Amino acid sequence: MEEGQKRTLTQTPIFDCYGASLDSANVEMKEPGEKIIDESTPEGPIEVVSVADWLALLGSAATDVPPNGQCGWNAWYAAITNLWGDVLVLNEEETLLSSSYKTRAMTFMLARLQWAAELDEFDVDDLYKALTNTSIDSCSMDQKLLAIASALSRVRNYSVNCEAPLSDWVRTVQLQAMATYLREPLFVIDELETGQTFVHCHAYAKAKPTHGGNYEQSKTFLLDKASAQSLFSAMRAASVPPTVLILRHQATGNHFNAVTYPPERYE
Fold first, then answer.
1. Rounded to whole angstroms, how far apart are CA atoms 37 and 45?
2. In terms of CB atoms within 10 Å, which end of the chain has fewer, N or C?
3. Residues 265/87, Cβ–Cβ less than 8 Å
C-alpha cells in the first residue's frame, strides 16, 4: 500500500452476539477519524437516570475494585467472570487471572495496532501524547506508532496489583480491544459527578479490505436512554447478562466498577 493511501472497507452490520441488531437501535456511531473520548459528555441536556436505575434494570449490582490506576482492567475481569460481591479482593489467584486477561487483550491490541491506525480507529496523535507525554512536532507516523507500541508493551507486562500512572490508565482503545478480543459488546455506563448517566457500547463490525482478507473494525456507540433500556431489558428477559462497566467521573480521577449478577440467576 502506498503512503497516504487508505484501505477501503465493505462493512457488514455491526456484530451483535445477543441477536438484537445494534444497527437498528437509535445510536450515535463515531465515524472513523472522529475523536472518541470517554471523558467527554454528550451535547445537550441529559435526563437524569442514576446508576442505581441501570443496576435495577439489569438485576445486578456494582462490584468495586482497588483504585490503583488499573481499575479498568480489574473491573473488566470482575465483570466477565461475574465476581459477585461488594469489592474485588486481589489475592494471588485473582491477581494472576486478572493480569492474564489484561496481557491477552493488550497482546491482541498490539497485534492489530498498525492496521487500526491506518483505519483511523483511534487518534494516533492523542494516544501518543497521552502515553508518552511527548511533543508530536518532530515525529513521523511510524515513530509515533513505535512509541505507542513500546508504551503499551511496557504496560502489558506488569501486574494488575501494581500502581499505574495516569498515562497507563484504560482509555477508549483498551475498551475497544476488550470487546473485540472477547468477541462481544462491552457496555460502559458513564456517571457524571451530577449523578447523570449515559451509556456507550464498544463493539466491532466485520469488514473486508479491498485487497483481501478479513478484519474486525472497532466501533463505539453512544446509546440514547430508550435504546439502552430496551436492549438491557431484552437481554435480561433472555437470561443473557451483558458485560457492563461503570465509569464514575470524579474530580480526583475517574474510577471503574464492574457490573455483576447474582450467581443463582445464571448457574
1. 18
2. C
3. no
Residue with cell 501486574: 159
CATH assignment at residue 96: 3.90.70.80
Confirm whether 3 is domain-assigned. no
Q: Which residue has the higher pLDDT, 101 or 113?
A: 101
The whole-number pLDDT of residue 3 equals 33
20-34 pLDDT, tens per residue?
334 334 333 333 333
Rounded (5°) CA angle 215-221-226: 140
Q: Report the pLDDT value the prediction gives residue 1, as an integer from 0 to 100.
A: 33
Which domain covers residue 184, as residue numbers?
A: 9-265
Q: Does a structural domain hold residue 256?
A: yes
* pLDDT tens digits along 249-258: 998 889 999 9
Q: For residue 162, give the H/E element and its range.
A: none
Q: Give the phi and the psi of residue 206 in degrees, each rounded to 5.
A: -70, 130
Q: How far apart are CA 228 and CA 20, in angstroms?
A: 12
Outline where DSSP puts E strands in the chain.
9-14, 27-29, 61-63, 186-191, 197-209, 215-223, 243-248, 255-260
- 21 belongs to a structural domain: yes
Residue 197 lies in a domain: yes
DSSP annotation of 36 reads -
Residue with cell 479491498: 210
Please tell me the distance from the alpha carbon of residue 175 to that of residue 186, in angstroms, as a whole number. 8
Number of domains within the chain: 1
